[in-house]
Each structure stands twice: as C-alpha cells, then as structure tokens.
Fold these 2 entries.
Entry 1:
Amino acid sequence: MRFRLTLLTAALLVSQFSQAKAALQLPEAAAIADSATNAQGSADYLALHNQVQRSLIAAIKGKHDKIERSQLEGAKQGKPLTDTAWLKSGGYDFDKKANQQAGIALLGAFSTLPESILAQNLATVENINLNATTSLRQQALIDAEGQNYLYFLADALGPRLGQAFVSAYNKGELSKAAALIKASEVSTSEAKKHFDYKRPFLIPANSIHLVPDNAVVNDNHPYTADGGSFPSGHTNAGYTDALLMAQMLPERFVPLVDRGARYGYSRIVLGVHYPLDVMGSRMVAQRNVAHYLNDPAYRKRFDEAKQQLRSALEKECGMSLKACALVPAKTDPYAAKSMQAFYRFTLTYNLPVVNAKPAPLVVPEGAEVLLEAALPNLSAAQRRQLMVKTALAGGYPLSGNGEQSFWQRLNLHDAVSAARR
C-alpha cells in the first residue's frame, strides 16, 4: 500500500505541474476538438462516425421516407432502444423538482458576475462560432439533433467497441441502460427561467452565424434554439449521459468524460450557448450523477442496467470488454494526450478569475463516488484526496461558496489519469 500511495503522490505532483502550463488559446482548442471529429483521417474511426450518423438519422426518421423538421422535437428513444416497462416497474422516484432547485442553488454565483465577464462570455462564443470548421459545425448539428439518443457516446469508445455499442443499442440489447440514463437527466428548464439569460444570437449587435443544417435534416435551415440560455440543457443531458456511461464502462472512463466536454463545445460552435452555460451544466450534471449513485435504490437499478450493457457488449465484441476497449493510439482521438489540455480548457474557456480569495476546496460528502468505478483499488479517502489535488485553481466564474467551488473546479479527467499513470 505504501508503494501505491507513493506512485499516486508522484502522479499528483506531475498533474499539478502540468496544470501550471499556459492555457490553450481558442484556435488550439478548436483544432483539438476538430481532431476528435475526424480522427486525422482514420478509416476505422470515420466508419464509426458515419455509422453513428446513419443510425441517428434512421432512428429519427422511423417509418417515414425522410426526416421532416417537425419530427425533431418529438424524436426520442422508443422501442426497441429503451425498456421503459423495466424502469417503471422499479418505482424509483428521481425527485426531479428537488434536484432542479439544488441545481439553481449550485449556480447562484452566476447572478453576481460582473459585466466584464459577461462581455467576454459573448466574445468567446462569437469567436468559436465564427471560426468553426465545416466538420466542427456538422458534428455540432449531429450532437444537437441527437440529444434524446445515446449514439454520440460511441465516439468515445473507439472503432471496435463503438461499433459494438451502436449495433447492440439498435437491437435493444442495452435497453435498461438506455432507459435509466435518459431518465437520470434533470431538466434545466427551471434554472433557465430563474436566470433568464438571453442566448448569444439574441444579444443586440452580436456577430453569431447560425449554422445551416446539412447533417441531419439536411434542409439547410439555420439551427436555432428557444428558451433561456443559462444553463445549457443539451450539455446537461450530454454530460449526464457520458458520466453514467463512464461508470458502466470504466475501461473508457476518461474518453467518455472528454466526450461530455466535447458535446458542450458543440453548443458554442452552433452559437446557441455561451461558455458559462456549458460550464454550469457540467457542474450540475456532476452533482446530479453523484447524488443518484449514492442512493441505494437508484444503485440497484443502475447495477442491473450496467450488467445488461456489459454482457451485451462483450457478446457483440466477441471478446472481453478490456480487449475490445483497447484502441491503437492513431485511431483513438479521445484518448490523445491533447484531450487533457482540451478538457482543462473547457473548465474555464479562458474566462478570467473573478475572486482572488476563493473558498477553500472541500469535497462534498459522497462526491468521491464519481471515481469509484474507474479507481476501484483506491479508498474513498484516497479518491477525495485525488479530487482535491487535481482540481482546477480557485476563483473562476461560477465558483462561489464551498460547494459551488468544488463542482466548478472538479477535474475528473486529470483525477483518473493521474492515478492510472
């Protein structure tokens, strides 16, 4: 045990040193996000990407000859993708209203941000949106229209496991996981009403370019969105899905967490959300997933869904999940070293520190459950220590009181990467 702790301490020191390096600039972050989209021309990864797009379009289209824009709003998982009967039979109360109010409280620091931060918030989304490549925009459209499905998670699994995932998902073999994961998303609608913040493309004199749809409906209709901007509902859904799948497939924990961050980036590419919207939704999703995983009644359903998913994927792969999850570095963009820098970038989007004397970082009770599946050999105390040691520096926007500060500063990518070195 002493040897293991020594290695952990050394890894933490390396992680803290690397965090001190200069932050990514917007063009560098865009290039990394784009590399995760096209995988530098990897034939296997591009085949997976095309399979995801085709499957999503087929699911939305259903029995129709083509997708009509009016179909998008009601497009969601149905049979055979999801087992709602199994989910309802457990009678679990997700207590959505209470969790929505907890989310509003968690994001309360937004209301005290100075105008200078809000101005930079807008300038950042304008920069990312206007300079996005065609492939970034197409991926953002696929992410947006696929919100009610789990197809996007395949990207983070690598070509072999990703293709197995899409195949098993389409056949309804992951139906319990699909039902539970989507039911675990806590709507941001009440928070949007509470904060009442206009979307970037509605701000007077903005320079946002609304992206024409040439990827899903393919009618060149400019993608837009209604309702409030803060926090991002799509990001909340995407990050919740990615976090829960990471608990079920810890072999791909870091890539899945990175996919959650990449999903949020897509909302900015489309010009419908600000960095603060995405950052806030990451905080809320982390809190909600930890809350559910600490509930024994939820955990019972979760374990059933996890077992179904892992058994189905192992059968589909024709080998162990450990083997199926292994991907050559050249075809694994979500495990590339550059993704560590990208994930750190998405914690702040280079918005400046607003509080020179931030609250001390204290790990909320039970938060360490988020690292349990990925780091089963560490004790709860060691996981908590890891969260503190790899956390983002304090004082950035949305990190107000102790709880707000923790969920804003939490860096799951670095925590798991540091312990696994």
Note: The domain at 22-333 is CATH 1.20.144.10 (Vanadium-containing Chloroperoxidase; domain 1).
Entry 2:
Amino acid sequence: MISDPLLFVATSDFAGRTRGKAFPVADYEKRSSRGVGWTPTNVMITCFDVIGKGPYGSLGDLLLVPDRNATVTIDMEDGGAVERFALGDITDLEGNPWECCTRSLLKSALERLRTLAGVELMSAFEHEFQIVKTGQTVPDAYSLRAFTKQRRMGETLMAALSAAGLQADTFMAEFGPNQFEVTNGPALAHRSADHAVFLREVTRMVAGRFSERVTFVPISNPTSVGNGVHIHMSFVDHTGAPKTYDPGGPGNMSKLTASFVAGILKYLDSIIALTAPSDVSYLRLTPHRWSAAYNNLGFRDREASVRICPVTAREPDKIQKQYNFEYRAADAAASPYLALAAIVHAGCQGIEEQLSAPEITQEDLSVLSDTELGKRGYGRLPTSLEQALQKFEANAVVRSWFPPCFSSIYTAHKRAEIAYLGDRDTSSRCAAYADVY
C-alpha cells in the first residue's frame, strides 16, 4: 500500500487537549523553521469542541513550529502504523511567542524563576487513569490479578515511553475500578510538561493497540475515586547541585523551597482554575478522597495540597538529590504547561515576598471550623469551577503573571465549557468528560 509518512505537530491547549496538524516527514526541515499555519480562534475551542466567544473570530494567522527536541517516533512492532508526533510553540508570523501559547507561558514562568533565584526546576508529572469498561467491576485494588490482566499493555507502554525519551518508572493497578497509575522520572525546565503530554498520548495509543480505551478524566463516578495528576518538584543550580533540601530547615526545606511552597499555598485558591480546570474536578477535590481540599502543606500526607515526599536514601548527598515536594491539586483536564506555569509563578511570588515557611500539618483539617481554619491561615479551596474562575479573576497579582489578554480569554473559554454542560446531572457531566479525556 502506498504511504507517505506524516508527522503530527501539536500544542497542548487551554482545554488540555493535544491539537495540531500533520505534514509529510520529508518536509520536516522546512517545517521546523517555518512551522504550519494556525488560527488564533482555535484557543477558544473547548474540550467539547464548542468555540467560545473570544476576541479573534475569523481574523489572524499564527504558526505552530515543531521542536526538534520534542519529536517522537514510536514503532510498536505490531504491524500497525508508526506513530510520529512533535510538540511545538505557537508564534506570530515574525516568530515571536504568541500570548496564548501554553508552552511559551511556561517558559516565561521558568525564566522568572531562573532570574529570581538562580535555579532550574526539576519536575515530574504522576498520572492516574482508568481503562473504560462496561458491566460489573471486580474488587482488584493494587492486586496482582489486576496487573496481570494488563501486563502486556503495561510492558508495551513502558517501552513506548522509553522510546519517547521518558525515564519510565512504575506501572501499577490503583485503588479505583480499572484504575492504573504510571510514573516517569523527572526532567528539567519545560521538558517535564512535554513528557506529561507524551505520556497521556502514548498511553492512549498503546491502549488502542490492545483494543482498550483509557480516560484520564478527573473523576468518572462521583461515588468513587478520581484520577489525579501529582506534580513533583525540586530545584538545582546551574551546576546541577540540588537546592531544595536543608537539614536544618522546617520539614528539611531550604529557605528557597519554603518561600516557594508558601507562595503556592498563598495563591492556591486563585490558580486552581488553571490546575484543576474542569467542572467535575471539584468533585475530586473534597476531604477524604486522598486529593486536596485545603491550602495546606503536609508531611507524608496524601490529603494535603502540597506534600513533602519521603526519601529512601541514607547518605546526605543522596537525600539532597531525592528530596522533593508534590503539588496534588491538579488533574489531566489541565494543560501541563498551564498548570506548571501557574505553580511556578505562585512560587516565585512567594520568593519575591520573602514568605516564611508554612506550618506543616499532620491532621484532618476537615474537622476544624471555618473560624479555626482561618486563625491558622487555612481555607477551603473553591468547590466549583465557577468559584475558582472568580477567585482567579479577582486576584490582580495572579492575573499580572500572564499577558494582559490571557485572563479574559481563559475565563471565557472555561465558561463556554460550563455553558455546554447546561443542566446535566452530575453523572452525565462525569460521563461527558470521561469521553473527552
């Protein structure tokens, strides 16, 4: 059969969807400098493929330019098509970063961190997903039986992730029905967000080869568990030396880490619209779901919004390299670039404001009254997407981190998503998102 190999160049958009165009592989040299045409109004396409009301209409032209260092070719050696795709930046026709390019927004946040603190961010995105099944499910949390059923898919996935340049780490059956978790090693700067997009798309591709369908939906059943994205972070200087750990600091946090985490917690209620951006995300962000419900820092606490993670090393130099903290109020409805950009900006704000180390909790905050929480500087996170959008809009500091047009475009996009759902009941809303993600 005649075939002209194609490469798909993509952006991760405001809906966390991977969209783009394909071109012949033979044209790669030309396209890597000139890109492919893109349209500004595409930013208003919601996750449900409805175009929200925005400022662009039919006007304007952009370029989507593939990144040579974010290009993947995966041959699963099963007789199927070779998968070829690349991630890229959206620019104007002169090559300048576009104001709504999520990848460029992250790069800008990371440059702020670099300039402010002289460090680079190391991070990794930990994903949960579910295999879509019909009929009755069998209790199989963390079991060998559940793993064995999907061993071949898991082994193929790990090989495919390695082929995509990720450091494949673990694959396991999780607590929820047909739920699995896949993790990979950390990467520097914006590459970790690239890897998060790779992981989601490669997982879908591999599942399709096994006649399975997966969903990264934040929650598929309001009576069950959700699927989170946990973002692990640490810092290194220009030599690669770790800068996150200080054995004399609170919770072993360096002063840099403490202020960065304090910034995240201070601005968390105003950035969560970017890290947990679906209507159903807030069904998961409730107490006792092992997710996040308050703006607290926990030590080995999987209910905290930010968690200091355990280390297994014993030698001081290895402890420094392993030590990291984890942001837990995120899910895969978010573009990894936007989520990480918001977190980094909040952390940088904490450094600029020289915020003190936050209290480290090891308790159930849901048993405290609002008054008691307020006295200790805690508050319940927004309980709906609309509430989260209002917090984002009302916070001039948070809005100032992004281009002037960003906040109005992003909130209009998200409200078009909410409007599409109309008066559907909770189960129908979950099902609609499960089909998308």
Note: DSSP finds 14 helices and 15 strands in the chain.
